[in-house]
Amino acid sequence: MPETSAQSITPPIQLLVVDDEADMRNGLSRNLKTRGYRVSMASTGEEAVRQAGEVSPDGVLMDIRMPGINGVEAFRRIRDKCPGSFVIFMTAHSDLSDEAAILGAGEVLIKPFDFARLCRHIEDRATQSRSRNESQGGSRMGSNEFYGYA
To answer: 67, 88, 97, 105: which has the fewest C-beta neighbours closer than 10 Å?
Structure first.
């Protein structure tokens, strides 16, 4: 039986799912958990900022249009607390992609979206961030990454 060292075990990816629509937030979180992700949830931008300070997520799946502070502003605040977190913006409003583009996201994931595709993007971002971090000798993922997919 081969030996397994603690260093060769990759910890699960910690995600923060932020959406003001309960069905979307709960359904997405449930599906992500079945894929082995650790998931925290928030229903507002303000709650997301608070949760991020508590859980230090590897990545944030963030709705853009929400009551209170929007997703873009919430992520600006989150990256101050968790500079290694990446974000994938989600929205049902394709006209909001311009705001995300200003931050370097290019496009956003437009709802409804393909769940398997989302998981591939999460894995790609986490792998890239962890590889970059390991090459820099750190213990967290990459810095201030914005990603969006249409």
So the answer is: 67
